[in-house]
């Protein structure tokens, strides 16, 4: 026996017949539901901080854009949100147009397909040759076996008995 006792009693049951592990899981889910609004608020705050950091990287100043709506700006070098129009950028579809890459991709795809088909054709040819060789060798093996059996039968059979009448025939 081991020196330490097991502490995992989740598979045990309480007096109502429910497993203790199930009860613990239900309690954890209830705690998670209670803390869900706080988690959502934290996620929103993190998203807002990320957006502000991105705006700083792009040179967009949210406070400046609010002042532009009230009146014209004093001409700093940063872009304004109104100039960028994020919704239009989000709607715009970006098409990947690298013809060299696409041509190389098609060429590689075609080469792979042709190599695979050539390998499959070669495999079929080898299999056909092997089948033909097996068929001819099996026929020759059958013929050799039949010849050996016939020879064995000849050796196993005693020579025909010479009858007295055949030996009494005068040699005229």
TrEMBL record:
Extract the InterPro entries matched here.
Answer: RNA_Proc_DNA_Dmg_Regulator, SDE2-like_dom
Q: Where is the composition biased (Polar residues)?
A: 64-77
Q: Which UniProt keywords apply?
A: Cell cycle, Cytoplasm, mRNA processing, mRNA splicing, Nucleus
- Compositional bias, Low complexity, is annotated for 162-172
Q: Which GO terms describe its biological process?
A: mRNA processing; RNA splicing
Residue ranges for the region (Disordered) are 61-81, 150-172
The SDE2-like domain covers which part of the protein? Answer: 1-117
What family classification does the UniProt entry report for this protein? Answer: Belongs to the SDE2 family.
Q: What is its main location?
A: cytoplasm
Q: Name one GO cellular component term.
A: nucleus
Q: Which residues form a coiled coil?
A: none
Instruction: Report the superkingdom from the record.
Output: Eukaryota
Q: What is this protein called?
A: SDE2-like domain-containing protein
Q: Does the keyword Repeat apply?
A: no
Q: Which Pfam families match?
A: SDE2
Q: Which organism is it from?
A: Saitozyma podzolica
Q: Where in the cell is it found?
A: Cytoplasm; Nucleus
UniProt keyword annotation of Cell cycle present: yes
């Amino acid at each position: 026996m081991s020196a330490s006792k097991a502490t995992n009693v989740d598979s045990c049951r309480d007096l109502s017949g429910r497993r203790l592990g199930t009860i613990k899981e239900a309690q954890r889910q209830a705690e998670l539901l209670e803390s869900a609004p706080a988690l959502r608020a934290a996620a929103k705050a993190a998203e807002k901080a990320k957006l502000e950091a991105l705006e700083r990287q792009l040179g967009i100043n949210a406070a400046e854009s609010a002042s532009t709506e009230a009146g014209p700006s004093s001409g700093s070098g940063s872009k304004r949100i109104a100039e960028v129009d994020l919704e239009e950028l989000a709607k715009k579809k970006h098409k990947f147009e690298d013809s060299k890459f696409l041509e190389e991709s098609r060429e590689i795809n075609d080469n792979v397909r042709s190599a695979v088909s050539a390998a499959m054709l070669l495999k079929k040819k080898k299999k056909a040759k092997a089948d033909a060789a097996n068929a001819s060798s099996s026929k020759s093996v059958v013929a050799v076996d039949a010849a050996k059996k016939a020879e064995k039968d000849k050796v196993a059979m005693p020579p025909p008995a010479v009858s007295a009448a055949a030996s009494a025939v005068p040699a005229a």
